[in-house]
Sequence to fold (256 residues):
Amino acid sequence: MAHPRRPRKNLYDVIFSDKKEVSDTENGLGQVNSTHRMAHRLRMAVFKGASTNPKRNSFLQKTMELALRKGMRLREISKIVETFSNPLDPSHTYILQLRLEQKIYVVIIANCASLHQIRYILLPLLNQYNGDFVNVLPLYHYNINIEAILSYELISDFKNLESKLLRDSLVCKAKAVQVVDLDTGAINFKCDPDDVRDTCLALKDKGYNILHLECNFKAKVPIRLSSDDHKRYLKFYNSLAKMRHIIKIFDNVVSK
Fold:
């Protein structure tokens, strides 16, 4: 992915100088908070310096120092850098939903050549633990963030940028669009879990470069399992985690 040319430093002020603060809504152009913006700067520093080691990447070292001065904790900074060192590939990322024993609900993020292939790989394990593929999303809060970089050609037309972003978000099945950092041309798109691949591919077709994809899920009502059920579930979880295609596992089970 080519690093985008740097736009004018006052581009943000030019676009939003006569506009009131915009809230982050599903139908409007919002702005991310300072922590999200700093996380983006850390990712850009890793990308620009081609290393997650601050001793070998002066861009990252300076950005980490800035983040610490802004109040971010070193643990939080390290997690952002570590996550970016193993990025999700949007074209091969699949979100699968499982139910075990009629009460355990699991969401999996997998990296595989196709949805059919990963379902085929998971089937023997599901059969062993009385599991199946069902829709469990209504039982979860979720947040899907697609951090994309505008090409210089797109960002240079800043007079029409806001309308273009809103239009592109609709066409690409995004639920919301946020400004991350127009100094670097960074925009954040939010979408539903079922639309992740389609939204990413549509954004690429529109001329965006995907810098980072982040998918998080949290059970609305966690459950506590009996000791025996918990041991059985841990066996399932550990078997699942060992599969090379599995990137992340979310469940509704309270840890013991």
In short: Residues 1-28 have pLDDT under 50 and may be disordered.
